[in-house]
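User: Okay, second chain of the day. Same drill as before: sequence in, structure tokens out.
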Amino acid sequence: QVQLVESGGGLVQVGDSLRLSCAASGRTFSTMAWFRQAPGKEREFVAAISWSGYTYADSVKGRFTIARDNAKNTVVLQMNSLKAEDTAVYYCAAGPGGRVRSRYDYWGQGTQDTVSS
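Assistant: Same drill. Structure tokens below.
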């Protein structure tokens, strides 16, 4: 059975950092990604990492870093210089890849990140 379990969310202030982790079990995936959903908004792409590279949303480029540990089947999202608009529920996803939500078959339960100004 495939499971994605996120950890690391919390409440921080503007300019602070947070590190999210996602542990996958059951199988390995070519691509793992992070999406987020703010209140009243659609779930949006944040970052993805595959065997061949990574990609970021423009809104987080230069502030967020995605990395994976293949031996542990985990992916992390290091978030620096956080802004109030980064406040959202962050979801880990796994699947064939891309920036589109429908390209991902498996999802974590989500972790709330709140950036207070």
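The chain has a mean pLDDT of 95.

User: Thanks, on to the next one.
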